[in-house]
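Entry:
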Amino acid sequence: MKNLILLFTVFSMVACTSTSHYRRGPSNVDVKHTDRQDYSRIYTDTSSDAYKEIMGIQLPEGQRMRRDILDRYEQLKAEDNLVAVGYILEQVRVQPIELFKQLRTYEPVLELELPGGSNMFLVSRDESVREALLQPKVFSVADYRDRMQPSVGEYMLNRDVTQGQLEVAEQIMRGELQGEALQNAIAGLDYYNLREKMWMRRLLSADDYPRIRQVVREKMQAAVSERTSWNGELELTSQISRVVPVQLIQDYMGFGAPLHKMQEWSFKTQYSFFHNVGYFRGYRGSIADNLLPNIIGTTLYLKELRAGDRNGRQRIASRVHADGIGAGQEMHEFLTKYIRDKKDQLTQGNFEDLTILGRMLRLQEEEGIDLRKGAGNLAINGRRIDQAPRTAMKVAEDGRIRTSIIGGLVGAIETSNAAIVQSINYLLKNPEHLRAAIAAANELSDNDSIHDSDFANHVWEALRFHPINPFVVRTVEKNHYVHYTARNEIGSTNQVRVEIPEGARVLLATHSAMHDPRTVFNPDEFNADRNPQDRRMNLGFGLHRCLGDYVSEVMIPEIVRQIVVLPGLERVTEDEVQPAEGQTMARNQGIDFGRRDSFPESFKIKYNKEQVENQNGGE
């Protein structure tokens, strides 16, 4: 029972987003966002959801926040806890924004009761989510480690650091250590998380923005031209969002395997690490059979399996796990030979590679790498690495290079697929936002910066409404108290303390945090000009913020841009009618998530191909 939260890791991908230094506040004045703004007393419209949420649940009748979802949850809980838990997680698909409003108002830390006494907790307020993600010693990524290590090996995503390690890192950042003491301190840092992340961050430099954008633009233009059908239809997942990111990994990272093999490896590892909810740590029994269908639907299992066929499900789960390990072994075997060949080219003086792999191999032979330059916004306990004194570090042996390159593939494809499809889907379903995004896209030239452009803001703002993952999952390493303020009536507050015990699993609702009116002004409003900090959790936050954020800041907006500028763009994919009980919304929000039910499997668009061909022919 202790590890039941592994069943929910389908929701727990982590990636990255852009950042900036200023925010647009409610008074239309730029405010530095080093501290989160408290908007609790700014809302004046007493009929607004934001006002009602912040001011509490005991407002006069007619002004109360809805709580119908939680009422239904309580009814189901009285009958069957597992069904009740499944209902809450189903609402994350069906009506997440409304669900999170009710949770933040009435149950900011919701304890989900499970058999065996090992409950899990859903944390929904921005302040509490941030607090947890900034305490890796308390809220760890132990679950990732157990699934990833047999395939990828030791990797920064599946490791945490001790408080002592963080304190030493902070000493380095503050410049308190010099000479031999400094070098000894660096040598003593956790290699896989702190040291390896430092040199990888330096290699994935923001200086590469123009080159990344050029590669993506060229691959996108070729893909759209070559893969659009005769009538202007284009299937995004198979033709774009699972192809172009792989091509970038090939060209930029230097992972030179065939495209179809990289897609296969990515699929198998992603499925094993994040989607194989019926298998791991020996978890078996009727709970898996009864709970999973209520959470994510029976589509997770292959159609030939009968309901209740526990042995059949476990055979498939075991095979998926083995496939993930096999994919990891194949990648290591390929890269072992590939790196050896590249080193031979380097020795013979025939090596002109500017890829990340090429830089790694060169730096193995040189003095080291400046940990500050290009470190960007990588921070440890809020202290940015590029504010540290200059420190050189040698790049690692071949085994660590292989793991870092593999990690780039594992983390880039399906998350990018989701970001591309879901942002385009949102814009197409909201024509006024699409028109504004198209205008912003047309204002960009090929030589302009896209990562901090108005158009990129439209993409990330769309993802704030339908992010890649609504939660990140953490394991509590020691008893911890979450504090929050509840308002019982206007002007009256009550301090609440909830204990989360050691060993519990926690769903930290980053989607909810990006819609919390206490720190995000008018969160239900689509505002491309809002503070980028308000959507920072879109794709990662804290110590495990995506290592490849520089790449994603360019790649995802450029791919989306090449789609939205197509003339006459429209959806072909329609909402499948899969309503939850008592609801009229489609649970898939208009995207075919396939049998894995986590990442997009199919999404079709259509545009005026003839107009594009005429324009190109007239140039």
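The two ends are 65 Å apart (CA to CA).
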